[in-house]
Specification:
218 residues
């Protein structure tokens, strides 16, 4: 799903010990994330479309630069670039020769899943967070419910590796029962990323469609 773009890269989070309270854990997560300026990671994404009774698998690499820049580069099964920069969300599909473009207002940015990872908002302000049971001793699982009733998703589940302090996977649940599961690998942190990482070079024959609000899925 293209809308999930904004946010992968929860890496670099330090996980507190089991003795720490959830509130302490969130403070440590927020503090560690705030110290991470840029990162990149490979991802594999599986979207379970309940209404269509099928799954869609895709893969690529994600890049995040604070403040406020995220790029999802899909390579499988088809090329697609999803870019959030300067309050504008763009989805470029080369096969269609088309860009879908929408402005995300400052008041609405926290309503998009994981956008806080690009330096917008905080966990405690944007979500109600509770712990989930985990059958894996080295994994801490969290359930994040957006505080805003206008959010484009109902909840977000995170799986944190306690030893590496990285997010291994996340699952986004939407209002009609669809789920998008993303697993990360080959994560790297960076002092900064090249400026052209967040440029979108388009062929001259590309059609640009501007939408008042973003609702198109991948």
């Amino acid at each position: 799903m293209a809308w999930i773009l904004v946010g992968v890269g929860l890496c670099g989070w330090v996980v507190a010990s089991r003795a720490d309270s959830l509130d302490d854990l969130l403070d440590r997560i927020q503090q560690t994330y705030d110290q991470t300026q840029a990162l990149s990671a490979d991802f594999v994404q599986v979207a379970t479309l309940t209404t269509l009774n099928r799954e869609q698998a895709s893969a690529g690499r994600v890049y995040i630069q604070k403040p406020y820049a995220i790029r999802w580069e899909y390579t499988q099964p088809d090329a697609q670039t999803i870019l959030y920069k300067d309050n504008t969300l763009r989805i470029y599909t080369p096969k269609r020769k088309q860009v879908l473009q929408s402005v995300i207002k400052a008041d609405d940015r926290s309503n998009v899943a994981l956008l806080f990872l690009a330096g917008i908002g905080t966990l405690k302000d944007a979500f109600t967070v509770t712990s989930l049971a985990s059958t894996e001793s080295q994994i801490t699982r969290l359930r994040l419910v957006p505080r805003s009733p206008q959010a484009g998703f109902t909840e977000l589940h995170l799986a944190v590796n306690q030893q590496s302090a990285f997010i291994e996977s996340l699952t986004i649940h939407d209002h009609i029962g669809n789920r998008t599961h993303i697993r990360f690998a080959a994560l790297q942190t960076h002092p900064t990323l090249p400026a052209d990482t967040f440029d979108l070079r388009l062929p001259a024959d590309t059609e640009v469609i501007t939408q008042p609000t973003f609702s198109q899925g991948r």
